[in-house]
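Hey, weird one. I pasted the Calcyclin-binding protein sequence into the form twice and got a warning about non-standard characters only the second time. First submission, copied straight from the form history:
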Amino acid sequence: LLFLKQLQKDLEEVKELLTKATRKRLRDVLMTEKHKLELEIKNQPPPKPKDVVEEEKSSLGGYTVKINNYGWDQSDKFIKIYISLNGVQKLPAENVQVNFTERSFDLLVKNLNGKNYTMTFNNLLKPISVEGSSRKIKTDMVLVMCRKKREEKWECLTQVEKESKEKEKAAYDTSDPSEGLMNLLKKMYAEGDDEMKRTINKAWVESREKQSKGDIPMDI
């Protein structure tokens, strides 16, 4: 609910900026952001009535662990998410709940070895059928089956993941090969450990020394 309020505030601010923006490029950027926020708000699961929330709180007990590790696969009709949870098959079936919307799902596993486990996926890459989606409890695993609305291959699970891949690709997809290499080296340097940073620095210094001696062309 708090996240939804933040999204709505962001949308209000974008709308206000749109009324003041005069440059076409700025208006285009703001319109794109406006559509993204409206879509995200639309795909948020509806708030639960207070009495249901209170009932859930009292029934949970213990403390809640957010699940970050999972595997996924797909067929023509389904996206399949595999979540490993030791002993989950011993729980009553009603302790494993999945709530689906057209572009999201959230999983709640109650009272497994004294803990509760949750996992949420918002902004799925493509729409799913709520009625056709389900979950299966297997030995030490929960399988979430998201029924695709259209039988097509998904390149990733979420819209955010897709945008991240596109930005990364754009950084290296350049007509100037040396620029693409520089971008790649910058990323490796930023994400690397101390050893990686030393290696890149050493290679860079050696490259500059060779350039100054005329061993290699200066434009490389």
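That's the output from the first submission. The warning seems to come from a hidden character in my clipboard, not from the data itself. The two ends are 53 Å apart (CA to CA).
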